[in-house]
Specification:
About 0% of the residues lie in helices and about 55% in strands. The protein has no helices and 32 strands.
Length: about 350
């Protein structure tokens, strides 16, 4: 073992067998001989010579006998693994970040990733161009070289850079209350906001980019969320490792209708339009919709949705409002486009 190595040679190979050791000898790799190092009467080590790609037979002979004392073992020569890049290229100091290492000539075997002085870890072979591994811990502020091997021993000559950073921490969130509809500016204050692609995660699933970053603070826009309540906010420098400070913001009803679906229908009317937003509609007693100058009744579909049926109307876009009495509870800018009804001219086939 190992049972394979690069065509350049240099792999330390251990061979076990009855009476292979105990003195000077040679290993034969497909006709190329190298000296052995005897470990015991049943174990020797030798360094594989350079050889073309392919499978070769390996045998061991002792100088005293002059003939092979072990045979029937194969060794696979293949091209050395070559690393092209690692994603993400930075992570936190405590390790545990799953990274994808891209390259060529990866082969399934005793695959490992070496993170410079941080040490080597097992790798999961995915394809001849991709392996995955979990970073070991190392001190923040250091950049290491990432190499890959196929046999647990011979690492790629080339490498990719990986940077270790502190895990971000969040100390305050300003403001702390937001509408369900999203789009509001949030300032996150904390430490270790490093890198140019910092992300903010809401409620453990909605991830948004930052808009501005200064020392100890960053801003982002809140995403739309489906329900009222508290929501954790965490920060990541690589999109994988997020802070765990546990601070929350509260999402609540905004008091406005923000969307209409569908936003168009025929001029004959009869299209059921659903209007929704961050608003508790159950508190309103006399809701109605106005399509331009025409008003129609509204039906409550849920605590945050109502339905209105479009009236017959002249073709073209018109303002769409939701009124409670005389008060407009839409955000403004909603429109409904009346288009001509479709006309069937002919049907093929006719029977």
């Amino acid at each position: 073992s190992p049972s394979g190595g690069p065509v350049e040679g240099g792999t330390y190979v251990t061979i076990r067998g009855a009476e292979v050791g105990g003195g000077r000898g040679e290993c034969d790799f497909g006709g190329k001989r190298v000296a052995t190092e005897s470990v015991s009467s049943s174990m020797v080590r030798c360094v594989s010579p350079a050889h073309g790609a392919g499978v070769v037979g390996v045998s061991v002979s002792r100088a005293a006998e002059g003939r092979p004392s072990s045979g029937g073992v194969s060794f696979v020569y293949s091209r050395s693994a070559s690393v092209g890049g690692v994603i993400p290229s930075l992570g936190v100091e405590h390790g545990g970040t799953v990274v994808s290492v891209h390259g060529v000539d990866f082969a399934e075997g005793d695959n490992r990733c070496m993170f410079g002085p941080a040490g080597s870890v097992e790798a999961r072979y995915v394809s001849s161009t991709l392996v995955e591994c979990m970073t070991p811990a190392y001190q923040a502020g250091e950049v290491v070289s990432v190499q890959v091997c196929n046999n647990g021993q011979d690492y790629s000559m080339d490498s990719a850079k990986y940077a270790y950073l502190h895990l971000p921490t969040v100390s305050s969130l300003v403001p702390s209350r937001f509408p369900l509809s999203g789009g509001s500016s949030l300032t996150v204050q904390g430490r270790h906001f490093q890198g140019s692609n910092i992300l903010v995660r809401f409620c453990s699933h909605s991830v948004v980019p930052t808009q501005m970053q200064i020392e100890g603070a960053l801003t982002c826009l809140t995403p739309p969320v489906p329900a009222v309540g508290n929501c954790t906010v965490e920060v990541s420098v690589n999109g994988v490792d997020f802070s765990d400070s546990g601070l929350v913001v509260q999402f609540e009803f905004s008091g406005r209708i923000v969307a209409a679906t569908p936003s168009s229908g025929t001029s004959e009317g009869g299209t059921v339009v659903t209007l929704s937003g961050g608003i508790n509609l159950e508190k309103f007693m006399s809701l109605r919709c106005t399509f331009g100058d025409t008003s129609v009744g509204a039906r409550t579909a849920s605590s945050s949705r109502i339905e209105c049926t479009s009236p017959a109307h002249a073709e073209g876009p018109v303002p769409l409002l939701v009124l409670d009495g005389s008060s407009d509870i839409t955000t403004g800018g909603l429109e409904f486009d009346f288009y001509p009804p479709p006309v069937v001219l002919r049907v093929f086939p006719s029977s």
